[in-house]
Amino acid sequence: MNYAELFSLKGKHALITGGTGGLGGEIARAFVSSGAKVAVCGNHPEKAEPDTLAIKCNICDEESVNDMMNVIANEFGTLDILVNCAGKNILKPAENYDTSSFIDVMNLNLTALHIVTREAGRRFMIPHKTGKIVSLSSVKSIIGTDKDYIAYCTSKGALNMYTKQLACEWGKYNINVNAIAPTFVRTAINSFQLDNPEFYNSLVNRIPLGRIGSKQDIASAAIFLCSEAASFITGQVLCVDGGLTAKQ
């Protein structure tokens, strides 16, 4: 048994939604370095990493997703891996969380994820009876916080159950479906929170390993779950959190 080959993505074809963002971009770089051919989609394809196929796509729109899948079929011929990184949060207290904002978060974090996952499955993975699907969840799918996260926490909690249910339904097609639940990782979206010393110190003091996550931590977990090394892992939510969810 060559264990190095088990962790390789050589010859695989991957799609990363939100692949031009902070975490998605790092996962794209990691996959390319691991031998995969990588397509990324987002609203700003010009920000894509080199050596990736950049596709502009509104994943909330079914026609746009269908067009993206046509591009992948033409360029790659198949799709072995899907990583759902696209997501958003709108910070508001629950008592003031308007319906429009709540729906906006749910649409991207859950409904759009389903549209892309469904199409990747029925167009590529189910016919070939193989595939790896990994979605980006959050520790906030498991533990709450004191304010402003009612829509985000709800969407990520639902994502965890979506992961488990899809793993049960698509196991017969030899498709592995898992999720990664990080704690805070510095990106352009959340830097304003992490730059607040009171917020940062309170967060790090709750993490047994004494630091926030890095982009490499998340990308490494994604490589593992999308490799043959994880072929008997499905329906799981892997917390990459420095022990945060283990601590009361």
What does the model show?
The chain is α/β, with parallel strands linked by helices. The chain has a single domain, classed as 3-Layer(aba) Sandwich (Rossmann fold), CATH 3.40.50.720. 43% of the residues lie in helices and 15% in strands. The protein is built from eight helices and seven strands, in the order αβαββαβαβαβαααβ. The chain has helices at 3-6, 22-33, 62-75, 99-128, 150-170, 191-194, 197-205, 215-226, and strands at 13-17, 37-42, 52-56, 81-84, 131-136, 175-182, 237-240. A seven-stranded parallel β-sheet has the order 3-2-1-4-5-6-7, sandwiched between helices. The longest helix is centred in the middle third of the chain and has 30 residues, at 99-128.
Structural class: alpha/beta
Total beta-strand segments: 7
Query: Please, how many domains?
Result: 1
The best one-word shape is globular
Q: Report mean pLDDT, rounded to a whole number.
A: 97
Distance between the termini: 41 Å
Number of helices: 8
CATH architectural label: 3-Layer(aba) Sandwich
Radius of gyration: 17 Å
If you consult CATH, what is the topology?
A: Rossmann fold
SSE string:
HEHEEHEHEHEHHHE
CATH homologous superfamily grouping: NAD(P)-binding Rossmann-like Domain
Biggest β-sheet strands, sense, barrel = 7 strands, parallel
Low-confidence runs of at least 5 consecutive residues:
none
Helix content percent band: 40-55%
